[in-house]
Amino acid sequence: MTPVALVGYVAAGLVFATFCTTRMVPLRALAIASNVAFIGYGYLGELWPILILHAAMLPMNMLRLRPEMLRQ
């Protein structure tokens, strides 16, 4: 398995983990981690649509995490 494929599998596993969470703060934290992993995967694999998508989603997840943390 190549390092690029390994990063892709880690990223996919993090997305799967978000579907297993029931609380918003852990969901957002996992989503941020998956965004970072997919950005790495997109960069290493030169998969620009994936990199652009997750680079755009990362700030949204970060912005939505703070209010969720303050509610708890």
Number of domains: 1
Count of helical segments? 3
Quick check: average pLDDT? 96
Q: State the oligomer.
A: single chain
Low-confidence stretches are none
Number of strands: 0
Strand content: under 5%
Q: Structural class of the secondary elements?
A: mainly alpha
Shape: flat
- CA gyration radius, whole angstroms: 13 Å
Helix coverage percent of residues?
Answer: over 70%
How do the helices and strands follow one another from N- to C-terminus? HHH
Distance between the termini: 41 Å
Verbal overview:
There is one protein chain. The chain is flat. It is built from three helices and no strands. It has one domain. The chain has 72 residues and is an all-alpha fold. Helix 1 (3-20) runs antiparallel to helix 2 (24-44) and helix 2 (24-44) packs antiparallel against helix 3 (48-71). 88% of the residues lie in helices and 0% in strands. It has helices spanning 3-20, 24-44, 48-71.
List the helices and strands and how they pair.
Blueprint: H1 3-20, H2 24-44, H3 48-71
Helix pairs in contact: 1-2, 2-3
Structure at a glance:
The chain is mainly α and 72 residues long. 88% of the residues lie in helices and 0% in strands. It has one domain.
Q: What attributes does this structure have?
A:
72 residues; mainly alpha; 88% helix; flat
